[in-house]
Design a protein that fits this description.
about 190 residues; Coagulation Factor XIII, Chain A, domain 1; 8-stranded antiparallel sheet; 4-stranded mixed sheet; 1 helix; 12 strands; about 5% helix; globular
Length: about 190
């Protein structure tokens, strides 16, 4: 059954988002971090080539929560989705694709995907499927698997910048991205 996926807007408290720069690798440089204003999650359900569901987190003015747009990600129970994440700075014209920078520096980056709240029933799990040159996970590509439990949840998406220290430990490094995407499993 293919039902149209409805994207709803909601406001969720978030951290201010900043992308990476050489500043983290060389603190002597006086460079500003790049701003991440937009996060796109693209998913394709296994057995269905349609590139939905899709969710967008967008905040063009980080100091004003009222302007933040967050889509709900609608997923089917007991399903597997292949996913990719795309990061943009749309405060510039033309917009800057931050995803390319993360891909080029994947030995220094690690995405973390978690269900929130962690203590509730596990409705889905996420596995990073891409690796860096040291065979460590990156997370630009991932597999999201839903359980047979309907209901709401949140997908926490974080990006760690770990120059010279990346070893698979999610606690290392600076947090460049920390967003919450509402998830509705039906």
């Amino acid at each position: 059954m293919k039902a149209p996926y409805i994207i709803s807007l909601s406001i969720i408290s978030m951290s201010v988002l900043f992308g990476c720069s050489d500043k983290a690798e060389n603190p002597q440089k006086n460079e500003e971090n790049e701003l991440i204003t937009t996060v796109h999650l693209h998913l394709t359900k296994e057995g269905d080539s349609t590139k939905i569901p899709h969710a967008v987190w967008k905040d063009l003015s980080p100091d004003d929560e009222a302007g933040r747009i967050i889509d709900t990600l609608f997923l089917d129970t007991s399903s597997v989705y292949q996913g990719t994440i795309e990061l943009m700075d749309e405060s510039k014209n033309p917009a800057i694709d931050i995803t390319k920078e993360v891909e080029e520096e994947k030995d220094d980056h690690l995405f973390i995907y978690r269900q929130n709240p962690l203590e509730s029933s596990i409705r889905f799990s996420v596995e990073r499927t891409d690796k860096d040159s040291k065979n460590l996970p990156v997370g630009l590509q991932f597999k999201l698997s839903t359980r047979n439990l309907q209901g709401p949840s949140l997908l926490l998406v974080s990006l760690k910048h770990q120059p010279g220290t990346k070893n698979g430990d999610e606690g290392l490094g600076d947090t460049d991205l920390d967003v919450k995407i509402p998830v509705k499993i039906r």
